[in-house]
Amino acid sequence: MESRARSSARNWAPLALLLSLAGCSRSSGEEDAGRSVTLLNVSYDPTRELYEDLNAAFACHWESAHGQRVSIRQSHGGSGKQARSVIEGLTADVVTLALAYDVDMLHAKAQLLPADWQSRLPHNSAPYTSTVVFVVRKGNPKGIHDWDDLVREGITVITPNPKTSGGARWNYLAAWGQALKGKGGSEARAQAYVEKLYRNVPVLDSGARGATTTFAERGLGDVLLAWENEAYLLTREAGRSEFEVVVPPVSILAEPPVALVDRVVDRKGTRAVAEAYLRYLYSDEGQEIAARHHFRPRSAAVAAKHASGFPQVTRLTLAEVAGDWARAQAAHFADGGVLDRIYAPHAN
Amino acid sequence: MSRSSRHRVLPGFRLTLGYTWFYLGLVVLIPLSSLFLKTFSLSWEAFWSTVTTARALAAYRLSFGASLAAALANVVFGLLVAWVLVRYRFPGRDVLESLVDLPFALPTAVAGLTLTTLFSNKGWYGQHLEALGISVAYTSLGVAVALTFIGLPFVVRAVQPVLEELDADVEEAAATLGASPWQTFRRVLFPALVPALLSGFTLAFARALGEYGSVVFISGNMPLRTEIVPLLIITRLEQYDYEGATAIAIVMLAASFSLLLAVNLLHRWSHRRLEARPGA
Questions:
Q1: ipTM surpassing 0.90
Q2: Region A129-254+312-343: CATH code
Q3: Name one GO molecular function term (chain A) (predicted).
Q4: DSSP state of A123
Q5: The CATH number of A36-126+256-282 is which of 1.25.40.10, 2.60.40.10, 3.40.190.10, 3.20.20.80?
Q6: Chain A residue numbers touching B243 (CB-CB < 8 A)
């Protein structure tokens, strides 16, 4: 899976470059060939298409402003696995991952960037956001509208394993958060809720795309918990009218962060262009592309333009639901956490 | 020694042995020892509690059990396939011959996805099995199915050359001496095939133990029930728990190595017995 992801990233890089050149004014000419610069963006699985577009647009933008060609290579895979590759020496100029926890590890395990990386860019370094929604089968035969419907007897829910998938951790925290913050909410109620929810999960895929396949191709499950952008990708895929997106009234504010890898850009001398690249994600063009890929833009103007694509939903923040990632990890996902207790022998 | 040094083709026993150690050290021993080094940062208690959690124990049971079942199935059916390929000439034999190696060549993730599609309750096999009350996808049976798929070539390729060496005359001789076909198989053919079957079994078993790609898709990955050891290792890595991951890996490594060693000794013993047999 990973090697496939990587090789496809490699295959796309020249194409992205070609597209960017085709779209740009050719003012710079051949004498600049020696001055071209290459960045590596290490990202997670569901952003492949988003960054293909963003990279082409940024290359165009940078070349017209600075007369320098930039080509951006992409690497995709599970968020945690990608972070480990960078820790172990994959020379990423920037990382665009699913969880701030994974970026924190770049600091904790290898000092690749400073501890305060998340305050270096606006909005917690997350230029676009997402949320967790439900995908149900056409016509919503089981009448699923809200979280309480997921824990009904006989409903099967598809969500990947929070221990191996970053997206699954957002799913889990969305479920936890709405029970914690809902009517009569408490820690005990939240725990009871997620226990019941995971009893309804027949398969724990290792990643988000795997869970999507299980739901869509294998026909397993009544409802799929998915990132909003993945949900729309699934329902709007050519000729796909078998699925519907259900947006629950309450969900979570998923903030996939981006960060500069200081050690790498300083060694490669790519800091300026890498910084500009991340800033570009916040520009109107960048926000527009994110919105087109069903990531919720931060820019109010762009968000207003795409309002019809993003239904109203109350989004709880990670801080409200679990404090921060270190605490969420320790309380829920680490050994002996809530998740392990759900699957402890006596619970079965 | 003295006899072998007279007939040597490659120069110098010392040089070649040195090279052997160097190469194996570079390619096998150094990578594996780094695994041990990583684990040494754990205390013995921490190591022990990591490798003996209920989840880990359940995963060992599944990984070893399913690998064993798959390797045994491959011994029986791999022998049949090898037999047909060696003893009969028929149109399409070359195609069949190449088909055997396909599980080697196919990326395991593709194999996993394909098998899951076939065996899920909407799939070609799955819908009929499901009607009989047998579910394969997302169960431990599914794990065994995937491991059988990836292990098949090992047995066939181990048995085939030995079968080719066995002359049909031997069987004819047995028959003229009044042996029934079953007696011929049991007393003439089978003993000669035992070493090859054993090594095929070992290879298939060892390969199955470490298999990840094809299994994660078809197993439900449910803690305590359908979680294989390699998945548990990945789970540890996802928590940046390198020590925990290597601890479990070492348990697998030690268990696999002991098994391989045991089967190799058995292999040598059966080989000796075979050679000691008069007329074989």
A1: no
A2: 3.40.190.10
A3: molecular carrier activity
A4: H
A5: 3.40.190.10
A6: none
